[in-house]
Amino acid sequence: MKKFKNLKPIKDMKIDKKTTVNNLVKQMFGSGGFTAKKLAVGIDILERMLKEKDCLNFLSFPACIIATGTRGIIKEMVKRKMFDVLITTCGTLDHDLARVWKDYYHGSFLMNDRELHKKGINRLGNILIPNESYGLIIEEKMKEFLEEIYSDKKELASYELVWEIGKRIKNQDSILYWSYKNKIPMIIPGITDGAVGYQIWQFSQDHDFKINVLKDEQLMSDLVWNAKKSGALIIGGGISKHHTIWWNQFKDGLDYAVYVTTAVEWDGSLSGARPREAISWGKIKEKAKLVIIEEDATIALPIILGSILDRIKSKN
Q1: What CATH topology corresponds to 23-311?
Q2: pTM flag (> 0.90)
Q3: Catalytic residue among 38, 79, 251, 283
Q4: d(CA 101, CA 285)
Q5: 3-class DSSP state for residue 241?
């Protein structure tokens, strides 16, 4: 009909044995299917962002997903140098470090937590983490690492600490290893909020050892103020998300922003705040390419990476 000539019709998805991840994503765009289309739009934005010359690209993510197999997706992104700066929480150091030597296990959201506690097993959603797979191994390795680091350096930024740990891990499944190997700074603004941070504090009780978070901020300042453009893939929320958008306000906001979150907007939290709210603060530009994908990151990230790898070449 003439009155609908400028509208695009919805197309059914067709999947067979030859369907690739990227082909699936393109069909999601044509399907108009709620979050599916948003995911497709987000991947288009990321493709453009990652191909943009002189664009400083951030990856912000929470620690919880590093306790899952999604750790492998983040590792691959860092290995392939898809992003220039990583911003996350201390728990990422905890889980990445612990899983080099110990296993985490499948569980259920509905397990008896009192019984788990009696058995020395911690539950993170439907992931089970025995004490020996977390606090004990982190304490053992961090004591060893900190003694070695202290013999050479008494004060480090958080990203420098990550590189020092990554250098000693020598395990290619580790995000910290690839952060060190590719010299991609991983900023941990909440460095004391986790097992690794606690071990640093313990070590500082009888050593004049310090983490200089202001040195992290100096690096962020240098990077952002010299960036012609910037973009970010922001997974979840919290301090990692805010640190990313906070610094980008000093260059008049992000040029590209893709949010992946399950948080709600109506409680006023930063984690649930939509990109349009960041525009009001100047943290995202008014004309930025942006989208919010309301989806579990453990579902979205594998699809994002699979599609992106079909579209762009690694910087390696």
Answers
A1: Deoxyhypusine Synthase (3.40.910)
A2: yes
A3: 283
A4: 43
A5: helix
pLDDT in tens, 42-74: 999 999 999 999 999 999 999 999 999 999 999
- If one counts every other C-beta atom within 10 angstroms of the C-beta of residue 262, the result is 13
Show Cβ contacts of residue 180 under 8 Å, excluding neighbours closer than 6 positions: 162, 163, 164, 165, 166, 167
Amino acid at position 138, single letter: I
Q: Is the predicted pLDDT of residue 212 greater than 70, yes or no?
A: yes
User: How many CA within 13 A on the CB side of residue 49?
Assistant: 27
Using CA atoms, how far residue 60 sits from 87, 154, 188, 241, 248, in Å, is 5, 28, 10, 6, 13
For residue 183, indicate whether it is catalytic.
Answer: no
User: Cβ(306)–Cβ(80) under 8 Å?
Assistant: no
φ, ψ of residue 312 to 5 degrees: the values are -125, 155
Q: Output phi, psi for 279, to 5 deg.
A: -60, -40
Structure tokens at 223: 């990077």
Asked if 200 and 209 touch (Cβ cutoff 8 Å), the reply is: yes
Dist CA 35 CA 212 (whole Å)? 41
Would you list the domain boundaries of the chain?
23-311
